[in-house]
Amino acid sequence: MQVLDDQKKETILAAAAKLFASEPFHKVHLSDVAKAAKVGKGTLYTYFKNKEDLYLAVISQGFAHLLTRLRERIVKDAQDALGDLAILIEEYVNFAFKNPYFSELMRTVPEMTFGRPQSEKNGQELSRLIESLIRQGIATGQFTDPHPELTTKYLQGLLRSVFTGGMNKVERKVVTEHITQFIRKGLSRKDS
């Protein structure tokens, strides 16, 4: 039995992320990933069942890193829901700008990822976090929103759509501030 090496797995995931982001899924071959990671093709099968499994691991890892960072920065039971939403937006945008390959992968996830436990778990956790912040803002009187569950979906779509093209010419600070302002104006109480 071969001993698994976490560093080798990370190297494979990094190489795969770059390839999957630069080419459509069907054009990336495991032999390309092995070459980019400087490992034998057989080594890939030690860590991943097939190309789909590797692809899903790349996506899950990207989401996991983002969610960890969000958990570190967002304070539970705080009275500033808008501030926490701004942090969420800032972290998402920063993550995307620092990891353009992950952003592209998250934007182009094929249908095969749905129904997979880790992909669903990460997506649901992000949804719950966004919705809880919106509901917190409603409870503290910062926001007015009759349908926070819909607003959650809109915000997630807005964040994903920012990276569909041309954003490399806009500064990340501008993107972050614009989305935050858009959300603030949409949710703010009309009398404030």
Describe the SSE topology.
Layout: H1 6-22, H2 30-37, H3 41-47, H4 51-73, H5 81-98, H6 100-107, H7 117-139, H8 148-161, H9 172-187
Helix pairs in contact: 1-2, 1-4, 1-6, 2-3, 4-5, 4-6, 4-7, 5-6, 5-7, 5-9, 7-8
Structure, explained:
- This protein has 192 residues and is mainly alpha-helical.
- The protein has nine helices and no strands.
- The chain folds into two domains: 1-48, Arc Repressor Mutant, subunit A, CATH 1.10.10; 59-187, Tetracycline Repressor, domain 2, CATH 1.10.357.10.
- It has helices at residues 6-22, 30-37, 41-47, 51-73, 81-98, 100-107, 117-139, 148-161, 172-187.
- It is elongated.
- It starts with 5 loop residues before the first helix and ends in a 5-residue tail after the last helix.
- The mean pLDDT is 83.
Just give the CATH class of the largest domain. Mainly Alpha
CATH homologous superfamily label of the largest domain: Tetracycline Repressor, domain 2
CATH topology of the largest domain: Tetracycline Repressor, domain 2
How large a portion of the residues is in β-strands, by DSSP E?
A: under 5%
Label the structural class: mainly alpha
How far apart lie the N and C ends? Answer: 65 Å
* Number of DSSP E strands: 0
Helix segment tally: 9
Give the biggest sheet: none
CATH architecture designation of the largest domain: Orthogonal Bundle
Contiguous low-pLDDT stretches (5 residues minimum) are none
Large-scale geometry: elongated
Give, in order, the helices and strands: HHHHHHHHH
Fraction of helical residues: 55-70%
What count of structural domains?
2
